[in-house]
Design goal:
By secondary structure, this protein is mostly helical. It folds into two domains: 165 residues, no CATH class; 128 residues, no CATH class. It is built from 17 helices and two strands. A two-stranded antiparallel ribbon has the order 1-2. Helix 4 runs antiparallel to helix 5, helix 5 runs antiparallel to helix 7 and helix 14 runs antiparallel to helix 15. The chain is globular, with a radius of gyration of 19 Å.
């Protein structure tokens, strides 16, 4: 989550949420140049990758993975929202994963590339069941492999947990759902500022008045709390990064949508308006969407206030821009 103001809740504090829970981001130098990591915890490059994170969170990146061209291609495509290039990116990451089977970063980015395709498919991909099944399977497999390769990279449950939960629900597999919640909780226990927001993805589609949706709202509130703590000021989960150039703005849309569904209009409006205060707002590609949210807020709140869901306005977590709204530069 990123640092932000909780609107009517209290003093002005800059926050943003890693909406990357829907897609993802990994730490690197602000310039975008590889920072790598080494086996020695005293390696300055390793220190750069893990700077600001909780002590129990350690990424297992290496110079080999950081220098790999497939890694660079992934970030170029995601940051430019170049979906046409994505198939080649996935092809290259799949080959890199075969060539470098022990590299956590390659496995993670491969899983996230497939997850990006699931979240924001091209028109032809959306209608291709084979591609959907393949990407769902590969996203799960590669995220699981990345976590096995690096059990201290506790960001991974932010993506793996919802994949298992939602996949299990779709298949009627209760054990898979339970495994997903267990993985999600493991991540929350170790890295709450990064993983808590993913609870939203597990419960956000439940009825607004249900106990489960309240769990989503509680998780978001807790996530905000962690990122407003002074100790989180330098946490990559609570600040803008090279990979997610507009995490603040995008996160405000997610937050506004959550609070609109919860019938908290003033809080929702407060979050939407905060996006306009970001120093990077002028270069954000989704300003018109934010304005649409503000203009239709009364309708959004009213629609969520009825028993019927047929007239509900689509929320950020249901959209086909849930990655690019934060990652597109």
């Amino acid at each position: 989550m990123r640092r932000m103001n909780r609107g009517v809740f209290g003093p002005l504090v800059a926050v943003a949420i890693v909406a990357g829970a829907a897609c993802g981001s990994s730490n690197e130098a602000a310039s975008g140049a590889p920072v790598g990591s080494g086996a020695d915890a005293g390696d300055p490059v390793t220190a750069a990758v893990n700077a600001g994170r909780p002590s129990s969170v350690r990424l297992c990146y290496t110079a080999a993975s950081q220098a790999h061209p497939a890694r660079a291609s992934f970030w170029v495509a995601l940051r430019s929202n170049d979906k046409a290039a994505r198939a080649k990116v996935i092809e290259d990451l799949e080959k890199a994963a075969t060539d470098l089977p022990n590299e956590e970063e390659i496995a993670l980015l491969n899983g996230l590339a497939h997850l990006w395709r699931l979240a924001e498919p091209l028109a032809a991909e959306a209608n291709d069941v084979g591609i959907t099944v393949q990407s769902a399977s590969r996203a799960q497999a590669e995220l699981e492999r990345a976590y096995t390769l690096c059990p201290t990279d506790h960001r991974i449950p932010a993506w793996l947990g919802p994949v298992l939960i939602n996949g299990g629900r779709a298949m009627g597999n209760g054990q898979m759902v339970a495994d997903g919640f267990a993985v999600l909780q493991r991540g929350i226990d170790h890295y709450p500022s990064f993983v808590l927001f993913s609870k939203l993805l597990a419960y956000a589609n439940e009825p607004a008045t249900s106990e489960d949706f309240q769990k989503a709202l509680e998780a978001v509130n807790a996530n905000i709390g962690y990122c407003t703590e002074p100790a989180s000021a330098q946490d990559p989960a609570c600040t803008n990064t090279f990979q997610a150039a507009h995490n603040f703005e995008g996160s405000m849309v997610f937050l506004g949508d959550v609070y609109a569904k919860a019938q908290k209009k003033s809080e929702a409006l407060g979050f939407y308006n905060q996006a306009k205060g970001a120093s990077t707002f002028a270069s954000w590609q989704w300003g018109s969407l934010l304005e649409e949210r503000i203009q239709t807020l009364d309708s959004r709140v009213a629609a969520h206030g009825t028993a019927s869901t047929t007239d509900d306005l689509s929320a950020a977590w249901q959209s086909t821009f849930q990655c690019s709204i934060c990652h597109q530069q």
